[in-house]
Structures are given as C-alpha cells and as structure tokens.
TrEMBL record, chain A:
<dbReference type="Pfam" id="PF01896">
    <property type="entry name" value="DNA_primase_S"/>
</dbReference>
<keyword id="KW-0862">Zinc</keyword>
<dbReference type="GO" id="GO:0005658">
    <property type="term" value="C:alpha DNA polymerase:primase complex"/>
</dbReference>
<protein>
    <recommendedName>
        <fullName>DNA primase</fullName>
        <ecNumber>2.7.7.-</ecNumber>
    </recommendedName>
</protein>
<dbReference type="InterPro" id="IPR002755">
    <property type="entry name" value="DNA_primase_S"/>
</dbReference>
<keyword id="KW-0240">DNA-directed RNA polymerase</keyword>
<dbReference type="InterPro" id="IPR014052">
    <property type="entry name" value="DNA_primase_ssu_euk/arc"/>
</dbReference>
<keyword id="KW-0235">DNA replication</keyword>
<keyword id="KW-0548">Nucleotidyltransferase</keyword>
TrEMBL record, chain B:
<keyword id="KW-0004">4Fe-4S</keyword>
<protein>
    <recommendedName>
        <fullName>DNA primase large subunit</fullName>
    </recommendedName>
</protein>
<dbReference type="InterPro" id="IPR058560">
    <property type="entry name" value="DNA_primase_C"/>
</dbReference>
<keyword id="KW-0479">Metal-binding</keyword>
<dbReference type="Pfam" id="PF04104">
    <property type="entry name" value="DNA_primase_lrg"/>
</dbReference>
<keyword id="KW-0408">Iron</keyword>
<dbReference type="InterPro" id="IPR016558">
    <property type="entry name" value="DNA_primase_lsu_euk"/>
</dbReference>
<dbReference type="GO" id="GO:0006270">
    <property type="term" value="P:DNA replication initiation"/>
</dbReference>
<dbReference type="Pfam" id="PF26466">
    <property type="entry name" value="DNA_primase_lrg_N"/>
</dbReference>
Length: 451, 454
C-alpha cells in the first residue's frame, strides 16, 4: 500500500465504521522492530550449529562461522558470502542491516569471508562441505491446473495443493529415504520450503541431491506438450502407488473436484481430453459432454459426473492400448502430484530463504508448518508484520517465549513448535553423533600407537 | 611403474591373475618401455575419443556396448592376454598423468573412462561381474530369507513399472545405501526403504560404475598433486614433453602431403572456396577477399590449409601477394609477409614443414578483435553463425540441428552436420580436420561430374 492509500484509509476510518487495522503492511520501521524484538536468533544459531556450539571436545567451534548467509537489503542490494562467528555477531549484523530477506547457504571448507585467500591454487579449495537437502514448492508452478487463482495469488481453494505436496514428499523422505529431521516452512506468500537436516542429508553430493530430486519428478510439462505426465510400464513404482492410494486419489476425487470443477467448461475438459491418447475415446466423451452442456446440475456435480464417465469409458476400453491403462492415474497425477523446483535441490551452493523471515510482498512471517497437521495450516492466517507490531504496542506483551503465555502470542506458537518438534530432537541426535564420532577418532589414534 | 629404456620387460606376477577388467585401484609394480609409454597411451586415447564421439552422437547403451567392443579390439588387442592386460593398465595410468592437469581435462577423462568401464562391464558375464564387484571390496550383502519375502511384492511392482510383464523378481538383490546408486534412484528403478535401495543383480553395473568414478575422481586429484610437485620437474627431459603433447594430439592424417583430391590452382580457387571449403576457411577466404588483409592467426590457419589443399608455394605467394598488395603495397608484402609464407612451406628457418591445423587446434584457439580465424561454430555468435550457414545453403530445419549441436558444445559434430546437409550424404567418421572436409567434399563433387572442375 502506498502512503496515500494509508492516509485515505485513515480518513475513511473517521467517517465509516471502523475498518480493520491495516494488514500486510511492510516497511523498514516495522522490520526494525521485528528484528529488534521478535526474530529468534538463538534458535536459528542453535539449529545451524548442529551441536558444534557445545563444549564437548569433538565440537568444531568454527563450524557456524563457515556457513554462508546472504542479505537482500532495501533497493535490491544483494550481499553474498556473509558469515558470522557466533549468534551475537549474526544478531548485530542483522540489526545493523535490517535485510528484507535473509538466505541460508552452505557450510564451506573455509570461512566464506576468507575465500579469496584460497582462490589461487589450481584446484578449488573453497568448496561447499555440508548443506541441508532442500526443496522448494511454489504454487505458480501449478497455474495450468488451478482455476481459482493464478500468479502470485493463493486462496483456500488452491492452497490444499501445497498440503498434499507436503504429505507426499514428507512421507517419502521418511519412509523411502529414512530421513528424520525435516523442517517444513511457509515461504511467506505462495509456497513451501523443506529443509532436511539429517547429517546424511547434509553430506549428500550434488549428484545424489539430483538423484533424489529426479526420484520425485513426475510432471514433465511445458507449453509444447498436451500430455505432461507419462506413467509408463505395467504398474506404478511403489512410491507413486503409495502416494496415489494414500493421498492423491482421495484429494482429487474429494476436495479438488469440489473447489476447481475441472470438467465444467469446454476449455477445461479439452485439456483433460488431450491427455487421453486415443482419439476415438476423446470424441466419444466430447460428444457426451457437449450434449449435456445445458444440464441443470451445478458445476461441481457436472464435473464429478463427467469424471465418473471418463473412468468408466477408460475401464471398458483399457485393453485397447497399454497407455490407456495408466490414463486415469496420469490425469490424477497431473492435477495433484507435487511439482518441485529441481534446480533448488540439485546444487549445494543454492541459497534458500531463512525461516522466520518476513515476506516483503505480504508482510507474513515464514513460519514452520507441522507436516502432521498440515491440513489445518491456513496461509491467510499467518501472522503479519503489522499484526505483530500491533500486538507489541497494545499489550506490551513480553516477547520472552519461555513462559506459559507463549501460546497466546502470535509468533510464540510457531517458535515453540520449531523448538519442540524440530530443534530438540535434532540437537539430541547431533550430540550423539558428535560424541560417537569423537570416540571413534580417539579409538583409532589409540590403535595407531599400539604395537 | 618404472619407465625404462631396456628392450626386455620384467612383468610382475600379480598382473596375470587379475580378471580381465582391471579397476586401476593402484599402479602395479612393472617396468614400461619408453616407446610403449607413448604408443599405448595413444591407442587408448583413440578408444576414448571413439567413446566420446559415440556419446556425442547419442548412441543408446547397446550401441555403445558394440562400439566399445569394436574400438577395444581395434586398438588395444594383443596376441598375448597378459600383454593385453598390461597395455590396458599402463595406458590408463599414463593417461592419468596427461589428463590430471586441469579441471577440464579431468572432467573429460573421468567421463570417458567411466563410460568405457561401464560398457566393458556390461559386456562381461554375470559371474565375472560379481567377481568384479567383489574386487571393489564392497560390503553389500544379498537380501535373503524373511526380509526378501517381505519385499517381494513391491520388488515385483518395481520390475513391472520398468516394463517387465510378469511380477517375478530376480534371484538376488543387494541392500545398498541409496547414495551409492544415484542413477537408479533418479530413474525410480529400485525399491527404496528407510534409506536403502534394493539393487537387482542385473543392475550391478550402476553400483560398480559409481564406485569406479568416485575412486578415479579422487585418484586424479592425487595424481595432479604429485605431477605438479615432483614429477613434472623431474621428468622435464623425458616424460613431461610426451605427456604435454598427448592431450592435444590429433590422431588422424596430417594432410602435409597433398593427395589426388587436393591439387588446386589459382584460377579455380574462388570457385573451390565456395564449393568445398569448410565454414572456417570459407569465412577467412571471404574476409581476405573483402579486406585484402588477414591478421597472423588467420594467415596461419588459412595458409596452412591451402598448403594441405595442394596450393604450391609459388601459387601461394602469388595468391597472398595479389590480395595484400591492394592494401599494403608490394614492397611491404615482400618485406613483411612473404618470408612467413615461405616459412610455412618449410623453406626458411629450421625448415619445418608445418602441418595444417586440425579442428581440435582451431577450436581451442582464441581469436580476438580483428581476427577471423578459429572455429565459427564455437566463436561466432548465434546470429552470425546462422547467417553464415544460410549463405552455405542450409535450410532452417538443418540449421536447427546444427545449432542444437553448437549449444551442446559439439562443434565438430555441428560441422559434420553442415557437411551432410550441404552434400546430401552422411559422414560417419565425423569431421576432425578442415582438409578432411575439403577432400571428402571433392570426392563427392568429382564423383558427380568427373570431368568439369569443381
């Protein structure tokens, strides 16, 4: 909102009924207050130290300092290769810059600040050493299958696509890959980020990250092809089968049909007919639907009816061609299966926005999402900068989240969740790992001294 | 390995007992004759370049298997099996020295050796493959009993998802951390559970290749270190010059002697430039006619090419004189340029008869402002290249194919496609040398109109 609009609103407030307070306001003043009082510096530092900020002799006190951060300041000024020795240095840097965006990069072999000292030798000594396995899912990648919004908008009708994506990916990360320490974060406007923080995940090479990303990849669409999901073979891979049975099928036939009515207009159903490789079946269905165009059923009911007709037709003709057997699944996958941004996941040096940042366009905080309760998450109810500032101003609430009032403060709930569900189990496992690898190291050196 | 000059070689007994596909984990103790050092490496390099060519042409895995078998027989076979294994090992380690010296060289060598290994492995019988897996000392256990039973149904689904019709599963599966088989994971070709992949016996190749590549990658870094710290200096009069020459070596005919297809005279040269010159030379030629001048790089590239094409020294002098005097005058030509032309023909100085540049040399050259040499497929902007290809008569469809190769940095394949489009035939050997392009072109044109000059 511009200054003008804010002032006009103010005038309106005197004449009309009091309007709700200005939402989604984002400016540097509010940002200062946020970073001055609310941003959880200690928690972020604890997380990214992975136990190395402890006193155990196996701890690497320089570990945190080798992590790259980047700041995006006002006016799109971009500062890369920032690094901080410890939490208070990080806090000072953020409080003196008030970045619009903070990104987290990889842990490098040497302090990013000192990388130029190592640039002279033939082989590159400044390389990423550890980095979380990350995923970025953005709802704009689904624009071809959501009819309620497009572009930067998101609403309660299409957000469930993100919910189902979280469920599919989270389940696979745990069941198939065996990962345990997974953090899902709202990106602030229209998507979600996933941070896989197990030690094994942090040490994956680019090739291995690429393999995981490709394992998740199903959708291969662009403007040039009508059929964007091609499930070949005589059956689905168990991962896809499980995703279909546990999540996608019910979502498609339930919520999606209710909110998107994907068969209700000619333009919409032509898109789906284009995914059926048999021309005869296409015309058969097209004929049926053109004739029933003026029926008295609601959009949703029409859609559901046509879906049943399509399934029935394909079932009866399934022996005509192998490709028809997976057609129903392909359509469901096209509309519901997660579409991740492969490039974000493939490279260790890719930077990703830090949790608890504030999105400049919406003013919303990038809060964690509980994958076990993601159906309850509402992107439009996430605390905004203005709401948080309002909360501070009105109640004079102490922002100390350790007391029992934490559930009452807007941000307290999120921070509490971050700590109890993610940080604590993670740090416990990190501690164990540092201790055990130290023991192994000591045992090895002892051996080398033995006769 | 020890490189010696003696006639006899003492072979260590270890070598004979190893299987026929060495893993190159360590350099075995053996003595190598100096001549073999270079020759073995050159033969292996021919194999690797053949592999590179096959991959760039998009050959499928089965075609690559056949190609590798053919290449290996052609270049690496010896009558004595143990001699053959020695050659295999020696050539690999020599090329490690050659290709460890920069990131670009390392990347190429790693890719080609891995591909070579992959296809040689695929050609082995399953028992031999298992033995090789054992060689690597990989700690993977076969999945048996109750665990296998519990997985059978899903393993069947995986097999069917890959096109198998029945849901029968193979006899042996290995339980492997998923990190070790990234390509199988990426293709959803394996069942995953709690971080482990269940790899079928028939998929062993993926496992082994990952190990091979990882090991070689680390070894190359160590080799590079040794090379730069000790070997290069110590061997500067013996092995170093050989090593440095090997990475840029062109392995075909050198066109220093003109053949029956290369014998042009001055009066034909304009016509021939339009009909038979590859794009790089055509461009230089046109610029020379236009500007009446070429800078040094251009003079060398075009001048030596013309020599290979059969232009005699006197004709060459007349040709360059005709153009240059339009700009710099006769006296300056004699003073500054004639000597260099005679030098190229081996008539001055140390009388080396310089050979025309091969594509590899032209592609790696670095034309600057005012230069017109180099490889247009590499050095031209996309627009300029398209315009030039248009002038050669390519259709827009043909041009797209060529541009596709260019974008993937396959400059010689782009030139080959141009050749094929212009003359309407296929060129299976690929273009490696501008004079080869010329000769092949002349062959085709002469076979169409035997008597008239083309």
């Amino acid at each position: 909102m511009t200054r003008e609009e804010i002032e006009n609103n103010g005038e309106d407030m005197m004449i009309d009924d009091p309007k709700p307070k200005i939402e989604n306001d984002f400016n540097v003043h509010y940002l200062r207050i946020y970073y001055g009082n609310l941003f959880p510096y200690t928690d972020i530092h604890k997380w990214l130290s992975y136990g190395h900020d402890g006193k155990h002799p196996g701890c690497d006190e320089y570990y945190f300092g080798r992590r790259e951060f980047s700041f995006t300041l006002e006016n799109d000024v971009y500062l890369r290769y920032k690094s901080f020795k410890n939490a208070s240095v990080m806090e000072d840097a953020i409080k003196s810059n008030f970045p619009y965006k903070i990104d987290i990069g990889a842990v490098y072999s040497v302090d990013p600040d000192k990388r130029h000292a190592y640039a002279h030798s033939g082989t590159n000594l400044f390389t990423p050493v550890e980095r979380e396995l990350v995923f970025d899912i953005d709802i704009t990648d689904y624009d071809d299958v959501r009819y309620c919004c497009s572009g930067a908008d998101v609403c309660s009708k299409c957000w469930p696509l993100m919910t189902v994506a979280i469920k599919v990916i989270d389940t696979s990360l745990r069941e198939d890959f065996g990962f345990k320490h997974i953090l899902w974060v709202f990106s602030g406007r229209r998507g979600v980020h996933c941070w896989v923080c197990d030690a094994k995940a942090r040490r994956l090479t680019n090739e291995q990250r690429s393999a995981v990303a490709e394992y998740f990849r199903v959708y291969k669409g662009n403007e040039n092809n009508a059929k964007k999901v091609d499930l070949m073979g005589h059956s689905l891979h168990p991962f896809l089968a499980r995703s279909y049975v546990d999540f996608l099928k019910n979502f498609f036939e339930g919520e999606l049909q209710a909110t998107q009515s994907i068969f209700s207009s000619k333009e919409k159903y032509e898109k789906i007919l284009g995914m059926i490789t048999d021309e005869d079946i296409q015309s058969d269905l097209r004929g049926k639907w053109e004739n029933s165009a003026r029926s008295s059923l609601s959009e949703e009911a029409t859609s559901r009816l046509r879906w049943e007709q399509l399934k029935k037709t394909l079932q009866s003709k399934k022996n005509k061609a192998l490709s028809l057997r997976t057609c129903v699944e392909e359509i469901v996958f096209t509309f519901t299966y997660p579409r991740i941004d492969l490039e974000v996941s493939k490279q260790m040096n890719h930077l990703l926005k830090a949790p608890f940042c504030v999105h400049p366009k919406t003013g919303r905080v990038c809060v964690p999402i509980d994958p076990n309760n993601c159906d309850e998450f509402d992107p439009l109810a996430v605390p905004t900068l203005s709401q948080l500032i309002e909360e501070i101003n009105s109640g004079g609430l102490r922002m100390d989240v350790d007391d029992d009032d934490s559930d009452r403060s807007l941000l307290g709930k999120s921070i509490k969740f971050f700590r109890s569900s993610f940080l604590e189990p993670l740090l416990k496992s990190c501690k164990e790992e540092i201790e055990s690898s130290y023991k192994t190291k000591i045992a090895k050196t002892k051996d080398s001294f033995s006769w | 390995m020890e490189v010696i000059r003696s006639q006899k070689r003492t072979v260590s007994n270890d070598v004979v007992s190893t299987p026929t596909l060495p893993l190159y984990l360590t350099a075995p103790p053996m003595e190598v004759r100096l001549e073999e050092f270079e020759l073995f490496a050159i033969d292996r390099l021919r194999v690797l370049k053949g592999v590179s060519d096959g991959l760039a042409r998009g050959r499928n895995p089965n075609e690559m298997d056949d190609l590798v078998e053919t290449l290996w027989k052609e270049h690496m076979r010896l009558s004595d099996v143990s001699e053959m294994i020695n050659k295999d090992i020696i050539s690999h380690f020599v090329l490690r020295l050659v290709y460890c010296r920069s990131d670009e060289l390392k990347k190429w060598f790693l890719s080609m050796e891995t591909a070579l290994f992959r296809h040689r492995f695929r050609l082995k019988k399953i028992e031999e493959q298992r033995a090789i897996v054992g060689e690597f000392g990989l700690p993977y256990k076969a999945v048996i009993g109750a665990e296998l039973e519990s997985l059978k149904e899903r393993l069947g689904l995986v097999a069917r998802s890959l096109g198998q019709i029945s849901s029968d599963v193979e006899n042996i599966y290995y339980k492997v951390p998923f990190e070790e088989v990234p390509d199988l994971v990426a293709g959803r070709r394996v069942l995953l559970q709690k971080g482990y992949a269940f790899v079928a016996g028939s998929q062993l190749v993926s496992l082994v290749v990952t190990q091979f590549r990882s090991h070689l990658s680390k070894a190359l870094i160590l080799t590079n270190r040794k090379w730069t710290t000790t070997i290069r200096e110590r061997e500067k009069d013996r092995l170093t010059p050989i090593v440095e020459a090997l990475s840029t070596s062109y392995l075909g005919p050198d066109y220093s002697q003109s053949s029956e297809y290369a014998d042009i005279s001055l009066k034909d040269i304009d016509q021939v430039s339009k009909s038979s010159f590859p794009l790089c030379m055509r461009h230089l030629f046109e610029k020379l006619r236009e500007d009446h001048h070429l800078k040094h790089g251009g003079r060398m590239q075009l001048g030596l090419f013309l020599k290979g094409v059969g232009l005699k020294l006197d004709d060459a002098l007349a040709f360059w004189r005709e153009e240059f005097t339009k700009k710099v005058g006769s006296e300056r030509f004699d003073k500054e340029y004639a000597y260099a032309i005679r030098h190229n023909y081996g008539k001055e100085g140390k009388r080396t008869d310089y050979t025309p540049y091969a594509c590899s040399k032209i592609i790696t050259s670095a034309p600057g402002a005012g230069d017109h040499h180099g490889c247009p497929y590499r050095h031209f902007s996309e627009d300029n290249l398209k315009a030039a290809l248009g002038r050669m008569g390519l259709s827009s469809r043909g041009m797209e194919d060529v541009m596709d190769k260019v974008r993937n940095k396959h400059y010689q394949l782009a030139c080959t496609l141009t050749f094929e489009a212009v003359y309407g035939t296929s060129c299976d050997t690929g273009i490696n040398h501008p004079n080869q392009y010329f000769e092949e072109s002349q062959k085709i044109l002469k076979s169409k109109t035997p008597t008239a000059p083309v």
